[in-house]
Amino acid sequence: xxxxxxxxxxxxxxxxxxxxxxxxxxxxxxxxxxxxxxxxxxxxxxxxxxxxxxxxxxxxxxxxxxxxxxxxxxxxxxxxxxxxxxxxxxxxxxxxxxxxxxxxxxxxxxxxxxx
Amino acid sequence: xxxxxxxxxxxxxxxxxxxxxxxxxxxxxxxxxxxxxxxxxxxxxxxxxxxxxxxxxxxxxxxxxxxxxxxxxxxxxxxxxxxxxxxxxxxxxxxxxxxxxxxxxxxxxxxxxxxxx
Lengths: 115, 117
What we know:
The complex is a heterodimer.
Chain A: E1 4-7, E2 10-13, E3 19-25, E4 31-38, E5 42-51, E6 54-57, E7 64-70, E8 73-78, E9 87-94, E10 105-106, E11 110-114
Parallel strand pairs in A: 2-11
Antiparallel strand pairs in A: 1-3, 3-8, 4-5, 4-9, 5-6, 7-8, 9-10, 9-11
Chain B: E1 3-6, E2 10-14, E3 19-21, E4 23-26, E5 31-38, E6 44-50, E7 56-58, E8 64-68, E9 73-78, E10 87-95, E11 106-107, E12 111-116
Parallel strand pairs in B: 2-12
Antiparallel strand pairs in B: 1-4, 3-9, 5-6, 5-10, 7-8, 8-9, 10-11, 10-12
């Protein structure tokens, strides 16, 4: 999985609790992304980062926040988890946002269940 | 903005039969095109990509896709499938340059390919 580690791989939590998912990369790529995968929707972008402390929203960012204090780590936080956030979450990385260097490589995913 | 439509949510085929997974896209700008594959309980792996040049691109495991600009399609084909090709396949597009969605991948809904013995 292209030097990308997601943790935890599985998590069950209760509605209203905070949850943080971690993505760690060893490729020193500048760009990192968080997606969620839901049946019938493919993958949808939640947030992405274009450098340390530089982040921006994707198409489904409500209820999520991110932080990137180091090049290698990108954290996704659900401040107060809801059942609608039950999903599989994927982290991706790319060397650049431009041209042929924007090839995104994905981690193995985190399966989150909010009860 | 870009959008991607994968026309079949599920495609069952028998082993050694040919298969085509259909992908159409919509975009007001030129795009790069990708196919990703997701095997059960795994992450997404890049299968093949069209960035420029020949409109026919091939993967190392026998899949090919052809970029058809006039029909805005990027269908994935394999002349003879194996049991091990059972997976979910995602088509994705990205704008080459410009626009608010520049640099971002937009995915289709996915097609589950099931190969039966």
